[in-house]
Design brief:
The structure is a homodimer of 232-residue chains. By secondary structure, chain A is an alpha/beta fold. Chain A has 2 domains: 155 residues, Alpha/beta knot (3-Layer(aba) Sandwich), CATH 3.40.1280.10; 61 residues, no CATH class. Chain A has 10 helices and 7 strands. A 7-stranded parallel β-sheet of chain A has the order 3-2-1-6-4-7-5, with helices on both faces. The mean pLDDT of chain A is 90. Chains A and B meet through helix 1, strand 5 and helix 7 of A and helix 1 and helix 7 of B.
Amino acid sequence: MPEIDFVLVDPLYEGNVGFCARVMKNFGFSRLVLINPPPLGDEAIARASHARDVLEQAEHATLDEVFGRSTIVIATTGEVSKSICTSMRMPYFSPSELRRMLEDVDGRVAVLFGRENWGLSNAEIRRCDIICTIPTSRLYPIVNISHAVGIVAYELAHIPRGTWRVANRVEMESFYEHLGRFLERIDHPDYKRDNTMIMMRRIFGRTALTPREVSTLHGLLRRTEWHLNNKR
Amino acid sequence: MPEIDFVLVDPLYEGNVGFCARVMKNFGFSRLVLINPPPLGDEAIARASHARDVLEQAEHATLDEVFGRSTIVIATTGEVSKSICTSMRMPYFSPSELRRMLEDVDGRVAVLFGRENWGLSNAEIRRCDIICTIPTSRLYPIVNISHAVGIVAYELAHIPRGTWRVANRVEMESFYEHLGRFLERIDHPDYKRDNTMIMMRRIFGRTALTPREVSTLHGLLRRTEWHLNNKR
C-alpha cells in the first residue's frame, strides 16, 4: 500500500478532528493533514485520546500543496440521488474497491474528507482523480466525518485478522477414530453408525477446531470412558 | 440477514450513545438496546442528529433479556495479546467474517458492545456464542465505541455500492473501430498500428467506460476529424 494522507478540508469542529486522529491511529495511519482547521484545544485532545501524537503532528497545508505532491487524490462524497449521474460524482467506488485500486500504486495518495455541513465543493471534487462513496442507507446517508474516516481507514488498512492454527488432518482423524470407538462403547446401533459419523464430520468440519479444542474433546471422551468402565 | 440488535452494555457517556444511534441509522439499523445507560440528554440528542428516532426508540433491557430472546449473541472485544489464547477470547472473527457467518441465520441476533473503559467482562463474554474483534493497529487498538459500532454496522449492512451500466461490447467495438480510423487519418505508422490498438484496448478496457463516456470520446474524435478536414 502507498502512504496515505488523510486530509480534512475545512473541518468545523475540533472534537471531530480529534476523533479522526484517534480512529486513524486505530488502523495504523498517522498522516493527518488539516486544511484551514478550527482552533484545536482541549476537546480535540480529549477525543484524540492516545492519538494525541497524530493530532499534534498533523500537517497544516493548502489544497494546492496536497494536489501538488500527491500521485492520486481521492474525493469522498456522500451518496447522491440516482438522477445526478454526472461525471462530477460518477462513477464512484466503495472503500473496499478503493483498497484494491490503490494497493499497487507507488506514490503518495491523499484522501479528502469535506466539511461537516456540506462536504467537498464541486470545484474540489472536479480536481480529484477518484471518487469514493461509502454505501449507506438512503434513510440517513450523512455519516459523521470521523465515522467516514474510520471506515475508510479500516478498509485501506485491511489489517489481517491474524491466524490461529486449525487442527490438521492427523489430529482430526485421530479425533474421529476416538469418536467412532466411543460410539461403539455406548452401543450406538451399527446401522446408524456411518450416518452419525458423517454428521460428526460435518459438525466438527465446519467449526474449524483448534488443536486445543480437539485435545479437550479427546479428554472429555476419555473421562467419560473411564466412568463407563469404572461405574460408581 | 437476520434482525440485528446493537446492544450497548453499561455505556458511560451519552454522547457516545447518540453517535452509535446515528451511525447505526447510516447503515440501515434501528434496533438499539441499552443496558444500564447514563441519563440521555441534550448531548446524546445532538450527536444522534437525524437518528433521534433510533435514540428515542432505544429499548432498555437487561442482559438476561437479551440472551433469553437471541438466537445468537456476539461479543465484540478489543484485540488481545497473542499470549492469551484461551477459549474466552479465541477464536475470534472479523466483522466481514461475521457477516458471512450470520447471513443465513434465521432468528434474532444481538451484538454486544462493552463499556468505554474496560469493554465486556469475562463473565459476559463467557455467555456469548461468537467473538468478533475488529483488526486494529497494535500501537493503539482501543477503538471508540461508536467507531466500533460503525464498522460492524458497515460490514453487516454490506449495502451494495449500486451499479452503473458499463458500455457493452457493441459500444466498445464501435469506439475501437472509430479509434482505428482516426489513427489512419493521422497517418499513424502501419507497423505500429496493431500494438497501439492493443494498448488502447488495455487502457479503455480497464477503466470500464460508461456509455456516456464512450459517447463523449466519440464526440471528441469526430470534432477533431472535422478540424482535420476543414483546416483553418
